[in-house]
């Protein structure tokens, strides 16, 4: 920065291999590139991806009756010479199909934020491994504009406005073979002026580097790129080329007179892939991180403009959190104690009830018992009386019998 | 996935290279050892220019300080378009006292301070685009060419420091050892390091894959490097 001395070397040292060392490290690990394709169903997103990367990504065409927009992400490993690329293609399924499209942009924004969040979480971890973290943040967003020939749809403007601060947007005109040449130029101008007047910030191809400044500047003029995608090959002259065969002619994908596909490929892959990744990390991600941390209550300087020590902030947060926990714990404990008391009271009531019942029953039982005893006595007395009477009666009877038998005996004696 | 034709993905390597060359590199190296072992000469020889502290402060009388001092000197050197900001941290006074107990403390403190500084920058909410990296990337430890064993000071220092920084032990002024003495000395040092579980650079734990391991094993066979420094040129043949 300030007063650094420049020294000249007296011979070859060898640190000029440093860039190679760095690049070799990246290639051996493989690196990530994530593309988000936003566009209506059937506009040609999957075909364009297949054409761009010269391969066939497995996918089925989506239906038009999705209830809402959802994002489908698929990861692939591509290898070219010694470069290993972990490519993730994210598709917006069902975009533009609903009757009410007010919330169409929301799932997209949520997805992008979720990837930033995941990276932030990893970065904030105590034991972290950013070194081999699989980066899922979106590096480029290809926005597919329908080839109406007139202007942008309001859905397009709204969606792009919501995304422009979160991701690098590259607008493209899809199925451009349906637009006539003279219409195309007007269409492109209309789109660009609409974007400018609505304040939508699309990705700017970097022009600060001498090696790429020229090509980026010339290419930028052709935005939005009018592309045609095709994986089928048609014989042109004596070569096979990717093209679309119509009854009236052939549209060649890689012919720059027919469409801007080659320009898109140059810009997206061959010239600016690394810059797209860098912008995502240093601009969009940092913005997200700053907003998120500020939201969580972290600040860099306190009200007196003294730089906050992060340690102090953490301590304060931690104490706050612990205080909350303590409060919750106390609350719960109080509630618990109250409940216990209530239950105890209930049980006591019940106990009292039972006791009363018991006493009542006991008394009743006593009374019954007494009654029965009395009755028993009564009956016993009756019985006694009866027995006495019976005994007396028997005595009388026996006496009478005796007297009777004596009388008969006397009568018998008399007769004799 | 199979690619049916050329896509151009490998162009990204050049893109990366250009970007790294534009931002430049930072390299911070620390040299530790008793005075007179040829540290400054060695660093000058390595980088083929006068990067050491002594060279940038010519004419000063060299007195051995009473405590270990740490002095850093930064230069910008360029080779084939690659710019490097090289910082050499010297530790005069290390191992030079009668009582050398805890002479490694100022060094450990310095290294941790650089880590702390970087961490602070990293945690800030509005981060700098490029955080200045003052962390010590390598610590070259100069072992005196006794030919016998590592001294207790060497072992203590390397044990403590290999935990927090990449330590590269070298045998200084190796021209005072014969080839056999040198081979034996290296052997004994390697054993010593193993016995005391000191893991110097390149550490086995950080080997990424089999190729890496093979390459690093070959390097590990030669540790510690027996070096001779000379920053003056003489006619040879």
Walkthrough of the structure:
The complex is a heterodimer of chains A (416) and B (237). With 416 residues, chain A is α/β, with parallel strands linked by helices. Chain A is built from 9 helices and 10 strands. Chain A folds into 2 domains: 24-296, Rossmann fold (3-Layer(aba) Sandwich); 308-383. Chain A has helices at residues 18-29, 45-52, 105-124, 154-163, 181-197, 210-220, 261-271, 273-295, 310-415, and strands at residues 5-7, 31-38, 70-80, 83-93, 140-145, 169-173, 225-226, 233-236, 239-246, 249-252. Chain A has a 6-stranded mixed beta sheet, sandwiched between helices. Chain A starts with a strand and ends with a helix. Chain B has one domain: P-loop containing nucleotide triphosphate hydrolases (Rossmann fold, 3-Layer(aba) Sandwich). The N and C termini of chain B lie far apart (59 Å). Chain B has helices at 11-23, 39-47, 53-56, 105-123, 152-161, 179-195, 210-222, and strands spanning 25-32, 71-79, 82-90, 138-143, 167-171, 225-226. The longest helix of chain B has 19 residues, at 105-123. In chain B, strands 2-3-1-4-5-6 form a 6-stranded mixed beta sheet, sandwiched between helices. Chain B is built from 7 helices and 6 strands; from the N terminus they run αβααββαβαβααβ. Helix content of chain B is 36%, strand content 16%. Chain B is of the alpha/beta class and 237 residues long. In chain B, strand 2 and strand 3 form a beta hairpin. At the A-B interface, strand 1, helix 1, strand 3, helix 7 and helix 8 of A face helix 1, strand 2 and strand 3 of B. Strand 1 (5-7) of chain A pairs parallel with strand 2 of chain B, so a sheet runs across the interface.
Keyphrases for this structure?
heterodimer, A: 416 residues, alpha/beta, Rossmann fold, 3-stranded antiparallel sheet, 9 helices, 52% helix, B: alpha/beta, 6-stranded mixed sheet, globular
Summing up helix and strand content along with how strands pair, one would put the structural category of chain B as alpha/beta
- From the helix content, strand content and strand pairing of chain A, which structural class follows? alpha/beta
In the CATH hierarchy, the architecture of the largest domain in chain A is 3-Layer(aba) Sandwich
* Record field, number of beta strands of chain A: 10
Per DSSP, what share of the residues of chain A sits in E-state strands of 2 or more residues? 5-15%
The proportion of residues in beta strands of chain B is 15-25%
Oligomer: heterodimer
CATH evolutionary superfamily of chain B: P-loop containing nucleotide triphosphate hydrolases
The CATH topology assignment of the largest domain in chain A is Rossmann fold
Please estimate the helix content of chain B: 25-40%
CA-atom Rg of chain B in angstroms: 20 Å
Can you list the strand order of the major beta sheet of chain A?
3-4-2-5-6-7
Q: Specify the CATH class of the largest domain in chain A.
A: Alpha Beta
Please work out how many helical segments of chain A DSSP would assign: 9
The CATH topology of chain B turns out to be: Rossmann fold
CATH architecture of chain B: 3-Layer(aba) Sandwich
Radius of gyration of chain A: 49 Å
GO molecular function (chain A): GTP binding
Region (Disordered) (chain A): 351-416
Domain Septin-type G (chain A): 29-295
Biased composition (Low complexity) (chain A): 392-407
